[in-house]
Specification:
- Helices cover 29% and strands 23% of the residues.
- With 134 residues, the protein is of the alpha+beta class.
- Strands 1-2-3-4-5-6 form a six-stranded antiparallel β-sheet, with helices on one face.
- A hairpin with a 2-residue loop joins β2 and β3.
- α1 runs antiparallel to α2.
Amino acid sequence: MPDKPKLLAGGNPQIPKGDGDAPVQAWIAAAPGWKGEVAARIDALVVETVPDVRKAVKWNSPFYGAGEGWFLSFHAMTNYLKLAFFRGTELDPPPPVGSKQPDVRYLHVGADGLDEAQFTAWVRQAAALPGVRM
């Protein structure tokens, strides 16, 4: 049986970079407690909203893309999952938390989950925009 992935600061799983669903599912499976449960729901909502979504793990974070670029990623912090909408300032309404990067907006999601209707509206909008290349 393989070793469990190391948990970095905030309980963020250390998962090797990789393209496709498998590394994202490995990240979700390694996320501790409620973080894994909420991440699994986020993943399911993205797939339901954007059925042909591309997935990868980069910098120990799941990434979601449509077309050539990426529109969303998330990272485990101590008390929340930090969701980054890379062109978040173009979403209506924009996600609530600003960033040092001018186009990025964040959504912090805690153990109590998220507003699924608002989240899926943002995902739908974000996936329709040109993605960010990384």
